[in-house]
Design goal:
6-stranded antiparallel sheet, mainly beta, 2 helices, disordered C terminus
Length: 240
């Protein structure tokens, strides 16, 4: 298998995370003015469903990780700016002794998990694509979507090709273009993404080019493309 990176989900014992998240939801319900990280209160319209409006999303909404968990030397951070968040750092491709891989960094939303109020999911079933408004550095990033799964390392991934320069770009990715990966390996048997139960999403970088990187994200939303032309239909090779 060809390898990419995978999100890390083993940061807190699950029972503790459930209690912490349940307490947070209680506080949110008692204080309606508290802003939610996911824009799940938004009503889906013909223009789509806003998942993240980064001008209203706090830095604490994101989890950042790098190859440091395997002894690597890459660094990364997320910073909130006026109207967008910036994911930046330095990729280091040197493989540390005893490790099999290095040279990756990611950021993602915090996991939606079980609470005393029941399950939490983002439902995108009415849409066939994701749309990102980004300002990149010319590098190839990866969009990661994590649905609820029996395997905690299941991810659906698709490339995000950015342009260098000062201008924003709108990137639309058909859901059909996302490939299932488990533990960083593209799976031979592919399944359709369960878009009704999304628990996390974000961006990562693992293009094997050492050096600084930066991508600004203004918004992420689910949309309906009129005729979503999938690269998978046009190209017989896998992108990973």
């Amino acid at each position: 298998h060809t390898h990419t990176h995978t999100f890390s989900t083993m940061t807190t014992p699950r029972w503790k995370a459930v209690l912490q998240e349940s307490a947070r939801i209680v506080r949110d319900r008692l204080r309606p003015a508290v802003q939610r990280n996911w824009e799940t209160s938004n009503v889906a319209t013909k223009d789509g469903l806003v998942l993240f409006a980064c001008d209203r999303t706090e830095e604490s909404a994101w989890v950042v990780g790098t190859d440091a968990m395997y002894g690597g030397k890459s660094t990364a951070r997320v910073e909130k700016h006026d109207g967008f968040v910036r994911f930046s750092g330095v990729l280091n491709t040197e493989i540390p002794p005893g490790a099999e891989r290095s040279g990756f960094a990611y950021f993602r939303s915090k996991l939606l998990i079980h609470t005393i109020f029941g399950e939490q999911f983002v439902n995108m079933q009415d849409f066939n694509a994701l749309e990102l408004v980004v300002r990149g550095d010319g590098r190839h990033y990866i969009m990661n979507v994590m649905p609820q799964s029996l395997h905690p390392e299941d991810l659906f991934q698709s490339f995000v090709y950015t342009r260098g320069g000062p201008f924003w770009q709108t990137i639309q990715i058909p859901i059909a273009d996302f490939l299932l990966t488990t533990g960083g390996a593209v799976q031979y048997y592919q399944t359709r993404m369960h878009t009704g139960k999304i628990i996390a999403m974000g961006l990562s970088l693992s293009d094997r080019h050492a050096g600084p990187f930066a991508i600004d994200v203004r918004s992420i939303r689910a949309i309906n493309m009129h005729k979503p032309l999938s690269n998978m239909n046009a190209i017989a090779t896998r992108p990973f």
